[in-house]
User: Which sequence fits this backbone?
């Protein structure tokens, strides 16, 4: 897909931003799209029509501030064996996430802006793309903070799965719990289950 000045498809996708960084005009970009018969997969992202679509990567491209959390993180970290039907992300309060929610493929949670990056890490999804997701301990904090909107069976199984993990970091969990002001709640659950 290389053309003088035009970037090649990065991870099977091409965006106007990628072309702009290479000095390609908007007109040149759309001409390239037409000539190479690329399909629009989401707003501002194009690909060949035979490419399998990586929803997580596309969501992270559409909203660079969003971090995958809750059900998505439960599944990724092996705390749940149910693959989520709707992707879950967390974004800072005040961010207009209507485009993320519009197609019905994404559920959005909100936190204060200063809490958004706590526990954020980059992981590889099943397609091999880097996406932002919360670490194990932040995922447990999110579970506890959202306990009223999560089924009791799922809540219990995720907590129990975390407790049995050898790689759990209780000190880090309590550090995050202090930041979110749920230290006493987390401590109660840990005392009962440990």
Assistant:
């Amino acid at each position: 897909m290389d053309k003088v000045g035009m970037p090649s498809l990065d991870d099977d996708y091409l965006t106007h931003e990628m072309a702009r960084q290479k000095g390609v005009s908007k007109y040149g970009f759309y001409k390239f799209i037409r000539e190479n018969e690329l399909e629009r997969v989401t707003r501002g992202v194009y690909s060949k029509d035979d490419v399998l679509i990586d929803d997580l990567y596309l969501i992270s491209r559409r909203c660079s501030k969003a971090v995958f959390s809750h059900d998505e993180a439960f599944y990724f970290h092996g705390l749940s064996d149910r693959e989520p039907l709707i992707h879950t992300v967390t974004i800072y309060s005040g961010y207009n996430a209507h485009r993320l929610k519009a197609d019905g493929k994404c559920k959005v949670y909100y936190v204060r802006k200063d809490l958004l990056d706590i526990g954020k890490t980059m992981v590889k999804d099943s397609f091999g793309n880097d996406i932002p997701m919360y670490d194990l301990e932040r995922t447990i904090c999110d579970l506890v903070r959202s306990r009223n909107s999560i089924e009791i069976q799922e809540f219990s199984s995720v907590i129990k799965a975390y407790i049995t993990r050898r790689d759990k970091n209780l000190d880090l969990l309590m550090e995050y719990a202090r930041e979110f002001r749920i230290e006493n709640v987390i401590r109660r659950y840990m005392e009962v289950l440990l």
